Amino acid sequence: MPDPRFFRRAGPFSLKELAERSGATVAVDGSGDRQFYDVAPLSQAGEGDVSFLDNRKYLEEFLTSRAGAIVVNPDLASRAPTSACLLLSDQPYMAYAHIAKCFYPNTDSSPGIAETALIDKSAKVGENCMIGAGVVIGPKAQIGTKVSIGPNVTIDTAVEIGSGTTIGANASLSHCIIGENCQIHPGVRIGTRGFGFATTATGHIDVPQLGRVIIGNHVEIGANSTVDRGAGPDTVIGDGCRIDNLVQIGHNVHLGRHCVIVSQVGIAGSTVLEDFVVVAAQAGIAGHLTIGAGTMIGAQSGVMADLEPKTKVIGSPAVPVKQFFRQVAALAKMVRKE
Amino acid sequence: MPDPRFFRRAGPFSLKELAERSGATVAVDGSGDRQFYDVAPLSQAGEGDVSFLDNRKYLEEFLTSRAGAIVVNPDLASRAPTSACLLLSDQPYMAYAHIAKCFYPNTDSSPGIAETALIDKSAKVGENCMIGAGVVIGPKAQIGTKVSIGPNVTIDTAVEIGSGTTIGANASLSHCIIGENCQIHPGVRIGTRGFGFATTATGHIDVPQLGRVIIGNHVEIGANSTVDRGAGPDTVIGDGCRIDNLVQIGHNVHLGRHCVIVSQVGIAGSTVLEDFVVVAAQAGIAGHLTIGAGTMIGAQSGVMADLEPKTKVIGSPAVPVKQFFRQVAALAKMVRKE
Amino acid sequence: MPDPRFFRRAGPFSLKELAERSGATVAVDGSGDRQFYDVAPLSQAGEGDVSFLDNRKYLEEFLTSRAGAIVVNPDLASRAPTSACLLLSDQPYMAYAHIAKCFYPNTDSSPGIAETALIDKSAKVGENCMIGAGVVIGPKAQIGTKVSIGPNVTIDTAVEIGSGTTIGANASLSHCIIGENCQIHPGVRIGTRGFGFATTATGHIDVPQLGRVIIGNHVEIGANSTVDRGAGPDTVIGDGCRIDNLVQIGHNVHLGRHCVIVSQVGIAGSTVLEDFVVVAAQAGIAGHLTIGAGTMIGAQSGVMADLEPKTKVIGSPAVPVKQFFRQVAALAKMVRKE
Predict the structure, then answer these.
(1) Which value does ipTM take for this structure?
(2) Contact list, A240 vs chain B (CB under 8 Å)
């Protein structure tokens, strides 16, 4: 059970209600009115809990689970423990996500503006915002409604933040326009100067970075990640992108919609990722490239050339996944012979 | 000599006292009462200073050092400069660590709560804490005794911090329980949302992250590192772990006791490291793996499979160290032929 | 046109004046008095704008640009669109940098000390500084003139900051001396404890880190980067170094003058980089090495040995660039045969 000191639970909910909210189907008529109180993993769930099976690695735990209800793919329904009510879904993990949100709707922060927050007179703050202690909001900033801003956050001149967005503690934002319902986590830096300078024989000279960062709706940016503002054009992050912790996004980068950028990835200046690109952890993408829609880049890859849509690459330099593992095998074989 | 503006020195100490506190042995009777005033590297130390030889790269500097006392392995005692008193130890670096701590006991911060710290009425703060300006401590947080919290730190609801722990400036903590005598450095983010979502054809849906971060005693976490809270289970960091700067620890990761995680390493979700695992800089470990006790993972490695205890691997993908260097040599040879 | 909410423009300037300030030459007599109002990329510039051609990838855009003036290498002057005044320079990007700075001179912050800044009585702050809300400045710190310190920054005991330097929001500095005209970006951590401890069979023991961080003039350090203080010697960053975001600099590292360290690079303890070394993104350099002046280290390289001046390496482990690409080709060929 989630620690109640940290997580406030809603509910109970009837099976029928959970089915409706998650798009799942109740397997057996008559069980729809049964009440449920929490979510839990298969191995720990009891009769009041809803659990789920997505990764079939956990099939064994499914077969013996004591969960009161389980979200599961229809093709496994016949193997479920008889004690469990079933919620059938082709996308059990997605259905579970909706159900877990029913129980834990993320309503931690009650609206209010801390006394020690410092909001410039020319800034606008919408209704029902939560603004933490030590927050600094600069001139002409525009904050929508139901925005939550954690303690000690710095929001610079003219920054715009859309309604429903959350900014984590100790983050700092400048030169940016952020959409609605985004989650910007603690320590994120947005709008910092891009790494632009002209090198001469005697040193480097700043090139003013005159663009902004434009972030769409429903974007998540993980803790301590950094997004530089554009050099002239803008840096753009499309709707629904998911960016993990400690990621670097260079100036003028464009991310399409719903890209997934895992921890410690770096994307160099002016590179474009089309929609639904996935970049696994610690990969790097060189500057001025175009990565086609739906492409998947493996962990620790080094991408030095454009990639067609829906390709799968890995390695440094990145090559098609099959080729990479053949190379790995060939190399291992070569030294075994010696 | 350490800059006295930044470091406050204690002492002097007699050789005998330093021997006792460090577990070393005074080589020659009668020198135990001699007083020492500071520590210094072999090449810079004078007659009032204690130095040490650990890495034999520095043997030359040992032979000609003017240090008043040197901590050294007994097998090198006969080659020491005659001007130096000797402190004999099988573990000279460890003995030196204890001696340096005598001179620099890290007592910088005097207890007190800054006027601009904002501590919720329902939070508990133990005696002799140092709480800096701009610190925000949320409802029901529990802070032990002799805890030091740097300026502009954010501590969220119900967080627990054990006695003797230090939290560096501008860090932020949520959803976590931290043990005693830990060092959490500036800018660290603990308890942030894990990177958990369900992907559908139209985008990604948050999966609530309902676990915590549980940190043992004597743990060090370096500047700007990030530790996500568990998805359901907790993220756990065992006693005595040493984590460097800019490290990413994913949700549900378990670190055993005394692991060493060097800078910029990333450990993906649900992976388990047993005790005394060492992960060198910039390495990555994929999710859902088990790394056996005492295993050493080389810098920039990419670990994609479980590892037995006490193995030594390097490379991406990681292979045994010997194999890696054979592969490197074979590849170099192959292109020389061409 | 840069968004006027974020960027304040100066000007207009005559072509002659821009030529003088940038070291370029006006191509045709008589056009020197023409006034210009802004800078813009070749494809977007209009008759009041100054643009430039540096990377010949953009030659097509140059040929058809409607810019009123273009900075260009003399050898391309004859191909310029007839509508454009030309500013001739052997280093067009550098000349453009100077011109862009004329229009955007970076004078955002007006001097003043925020009421909620907390400055210790024993600290000294020079004239014309901008000190933001929530800033904490410790005892005996020394801040020069025209220093700009963003909101929620923490500056610890005895830190020195030279005149004209900018410290970004939410950064924290300790145990360091910073030169003049530096740009320290948001979230940077300087002077944190180096990763130094002695390992024993029962755990790890802190070795006090008794050095400082010494930073020269005109140094830039990117967002959320970390620079540890020395263990005994100092960590040193030479004049004019450019360090990008999320970079780790270990204890005792010495960077010469004008080094360029791109995002997510890690440099391990006690390594020395001579002047004008370039380290591309995500590369790592092991400890106790010397990297010769002017050497270039490719992205994601792993450097495990000293490097002579002006060498070019890439790969992990790093090898000469030519060898690396031969190895890549040989490996690909090997698996194609199979």
Answers:
(1) 0.95
(2) 203-204
